[in-house]
Amino acid sequence: MNPVLLVVVVVLVFSLIVVVHEAGHFLTAKAVGIRVDQFSVGFGPRLFGVTRGETTYAVRALPLGGFVKLAGMDPSEQAGPRGFNAHPLWQRLLVIVAGPVLNLVLPVVLFAAVYAVGSPVQVVSVDSGTPAQAAGVQAGDVIVAVNGHRVQQQSDLRAMVSAAGQAGEPVQLQVRRNGQLLAFTITPVKRDPGYILGVRTSPGVKQLSPPAAVSQSVTDTAGLVVGTFQGFYRLATDKSLGGFFGQNGIRGPVGIMKTTADEARGGPVPLTFWIGFLSLSLGLINILPFPALDGGRLVFLLLEGIRGRPVDPMREQMVHYVGLAILFGFIALVTFNDVFR
Predict the structure, then answer these.
(1) Distance of alpha carbon 204 from its chain centroid, rounded?
(2) How many Å is the Cα radius of gyration of the chain?
(3) Helix, strand, or coil here: 230?
């Protein structure tokens, strides 16, 4: 992929995830009557923007985040009856939690779309000196069938090639190239740990009915949530992994951008799954009970519900400022690790 296009894709991926998160806050605030002063994608100097009604929509120079400015979130601001703190506790809770919730919903939608549409097994590259190259298989060929049996996933191809190789028999490989069906007779060769034709392929995704696609996407998203917490636990307890800042530890903006670029090179399906994982990760991180994050704000709202009165706004703001400083320090540390790695 062209390097310039790759940068554009990475920026769009980050922007999409941020827009989804902030849209949760924005839409819920609008729904309950809280005034939204600004919806910005990115941080730093404003590049351009437009005001519609009472809200300014802006794009800023650093495309690594974004924010929604709700009236009354700043204790020094007199926002009146449409300010954030003037609304009932349950409405404020909904507004804060809506951002992470939408981030958790996005992977369900993306995964379901991929499963409903499906994705063919496509030849990414052909190894030199292998039977596939000798037969004339080319990168870009879509593998349709092996010995008349439909290939829907990479595992289908591997199983059929392995079975033929163990029997010492050739396979009839049917591919689609530029709209035409072609057939090649290829004898698999032994390569540890099995038999190969000499092609590297995309994973492929088996097409499912819409209900099955939604069910599978919910299952996969739930599995990712569990797997994420298990991964954090292993980093904290398994010394062989090197901890949170080791070789296998947490990735910062640089590491995430590199992985995003790698997934983009693999095509739309790997990139879509990666976007879903990133969105889920952002949702889970933001719900952590840490100052400056949505979870930290939820803690103060829950304290208000328990105490029957809000925490002093200036004290709460100071806690969030300290939390933000710690977060920036943490991001700087993991970014240094990304560069070092």
Answers:
(1) 19
(2) 25
(3) helix
Beta strands 199-201 and 121-126, pairing class: antiparallel
| Both tokens assigned to 1 | 């992929």
| Residue 53 token pair | 């009604």
Q: Give every CB contact of residue 6 below 8 A, 6+ residues apart in sequence.
A: 261, 264, 265
Amino acid (one-letter) located at 186 = I
Mean pLDDT by 10 residues, the chain (341 residues): 78 90 96 95 91 93 86 81 92 96 96 93 91 93 94 92 92 94 94 89 90 96 91 77 66 80 84 93 92 93 92 89 88 76 64
Residues of 178-191 as b/e, b for ≥16 C-beta within 10 angstroms? Answer: eeeebebebebeee
Dig out the tokens for 296 from the structure.
């930290």
For 7-56, the DSSP string reads HHHHHHHHHHHHHHHHHHHHHHHHHHT--EEEEEEEEEEEEEEEEETTEE
Rounded CA separation 84/70 (Å): 7
Q: What is the DSSP letter of 81?
A: G
Residue 141: phi and psi, rounded to 5, are: -65, 135
CA distance 338 to 334: 6
Residue 312 β-bridge partners: none
Alpha-carbon gap, residue 114 to 295, rounded angstroms: 31
Strands 121-126 and 55-70: unpaired
Cα distances (angstroms) measured from residue 229 to each of 22, 285, 305? 24, 11, 28
The CB density around residue 52, as the number of other CB atoms within 10 Å, is 8
**Check: CATH 3.20.20.20 for 121-201?**
no
55 touches 36 (CB < 8 A): yes
Per-residue model confidence (pLDDT) at position 114: 94
Q: What are the domain boundaries of the chain?
A: 3-117+260-340, 121-201
